[in-house]
């Protein structure tokens, strides 16, 4: 089975598991290893970024959040972004109609800057401000809540969510996985790619330098050496499927 088909199965499964919290019994006390809003009426777990802001507001060290993300990161690296994150899957879905995307220069540390801003604004405002703009929350929490809790009075941030979601969709249509590449603060978990148990490796002896792998990369990776190790790599496996000589392989790190 090609990795693309397997990835589709895991994305559908992850979305289903993310929304089994339709009763209090199924709402767990853990955090997702990907971006998913705990404001969704059916969410089965919490958003790690939302939870991080609560720790900052409470002036408590987020050892719980860091522990969960540390375990997932050590095992899978940033693979959850490519294989499970519902908002990542949404970007894949809406971007599938356009095979050719415009190239935009990589800004590797942009997501780290966003994470810093998220922490600082939570500390200064004593509010989960990022959640009021997050397009993932717009799609998976705001819109379902309108129908689930109807009649629900909407405020100014409802319209803010609509605007941020529209802007994000437009940018994703132009630049593949724009949110994942430049904005998502959870993308910083990519620092684990260099040591995670799951990785993608290149066999130089088989590589013909055709660069087909880089041409299909949704994250805009431009160097062969960055595959599987860059903080931008989401280990989606598109490069593996596209390689004509099978020089790339998803494997367990020895």
Short characterization:
This protein is mainly alpha-helical and 254 residues long. It has eleven helices and two strands, in the order H-H-H-H-H-H-H-H-H-E-H-H-E.
Q: What are its keywords?
A:
single chain, 254 residues, mainly alpha, 11 helices
Structural account:
The chain has helices at 3-18, 48-57, 63-76, 79-83, 86-95, 110-125, 135-148, 156-174, 178-183, 212-215, 238-242, and strands at residues 198-202, 248-252. The protein has 254 residues and is mostly helical. It has one domain (3-198, 220-236). It has a two-stranded antiparallel sheet. It is globular. The model has no long low-confidence stretch (mean pLDDT 91).
Uncertain stretches: none
Mean pLDDT reading: 91
Q: How does the major sheet shape up?
A: 2 strands, antiparallel
Percentage of residues in strands: under 5%
Total discrete domains: 1
Helix/strand layout:
Elements (H helix, E strand, L loop, with lengths): L2 H16 L29 H10 L5 H14 L2 H5 L2 H10 L14 H16 L9 H14 L7 H19 L3 H6 L14 E5 L9 H4 L22 H5 L5 E5 L2
Antiparallel strand pairs: 1-2
Helix pairs in contact: 2-6, 7-8
């Amino acid at each position: 089975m090609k990795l693309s088909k397997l990835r589709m199965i895991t994305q559908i499964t992850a979305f289903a598991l993310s929304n089994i919290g339709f009763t209090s019994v199924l709402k767990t006390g853990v955090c997702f290893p990907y971006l998913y809003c705990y404001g969704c009426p059916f969410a089965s777990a919490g958003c790690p970024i939302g939870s991080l802001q609560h720790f900052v507001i409470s002036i408590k060290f987020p050892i719980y959040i860091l522990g969960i993300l540390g375990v997932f990161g050590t095992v899978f690296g940033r693979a959850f972004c490519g294989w499970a994150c519902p908002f990542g899957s949404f970007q894949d879905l809406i971007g599938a109609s356009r095979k050719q995307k415009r190239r935009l220069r990589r800004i590797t540390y942009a997501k780290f800057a966003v994470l810093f801003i998220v922490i600082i604004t939570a500390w200064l405002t004593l509010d989960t401000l990022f959640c009021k703009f997050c397009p993932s929350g717009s799609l998976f929490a705001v819109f379902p809540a309108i129908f689930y809790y109807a009649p629900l009075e909407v405020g100014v941030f409802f319209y803010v969510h609509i605007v941020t979601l529209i802007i994000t969709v437009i940018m994703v249509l132009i630049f593949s996985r724009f949110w994942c590449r430049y904005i998502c603060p959870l993308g910083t978990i990519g620092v684990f790619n260099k040591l995670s148990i799951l990785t993608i490796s290149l066999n130089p002896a088989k590589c013909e330098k055709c660069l087909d792998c880089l041409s299909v990369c949704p994250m805009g990776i431009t160097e062969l050496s960055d595959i599987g190790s860059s903080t931008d790599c989401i280990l989606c496996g598109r490069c593996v499927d596209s390689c004509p000589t099978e020089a790339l392989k998803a494997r367990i790190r020895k």
